[in-house]
Design goal:
By secondary structure, the chain is mostly helical. The protein has a domain of 62 residues. It is 48% helix and 0% strand. It has four helices and no strands. Helix 1 crosses helix 3. It is elongated, with a radius of gyration of 18 Å. It starts with 48 loop residues before the first helix and ends with a helix. The relative contact order is 0.20. The mean pLDDT is 87.
């Protein structure tokens, strides 16, 4: 649940992002440290560059899935149809893709583990 709610991987309580995903000017902003347990989110300088590769993989998967579905349900769709649907979905979902690629990096790549006593240590 902490992954889905974009919470700290150590205490599962502190917010990672400072603003909601639908705020067009501030959806990129995140806390440097967990406001609850104090965990430093950016493990090392450039750590979240890995999220760029994760985001790329998610976008490729979306493109393949949408392309296959279009091919199955439409009779010989044009290139413009593919471009419209794939780019439309990727662009509309870009804020969520950005956020969850960072969450994947933080929860599954960083090596941080849940610590039920993390809040008490602070």
């Amino acid at each position: 649940m902490a992954f889905i709610k974009c919470k700290c991987p150590q205490c599962r309580s502190g917010k990672f992002f400072t603003h909601s995903f639908y705020n067009p000017t501030k959806f990129l902003h995140f806390n440097e440290h967990c406001p609850v347990c104090g965990l430093k989110f950016e493990k090392e300088t450039g750590f979240f560059w890995s999220a760029m590769y994760i985001s790329y993989g998610i976008n490729v998967a979306i493109g393949v899935i949408v392309g296959v579905l279009l091919n199955l349900f439409l009779d010989d769709p044009s290139v413009n149809t593919y471009l419209f649907w794939i780019l439309g979905i990727v662009i509309l979902g870009s804020t969520l893709i950005f956020r969850y690629s960072r969450m994947i990096a933080l929860h599954f790549v960083s090596g941080y583990k849940y610590d039920k006593n993390a809040v008490k240590k602070q």
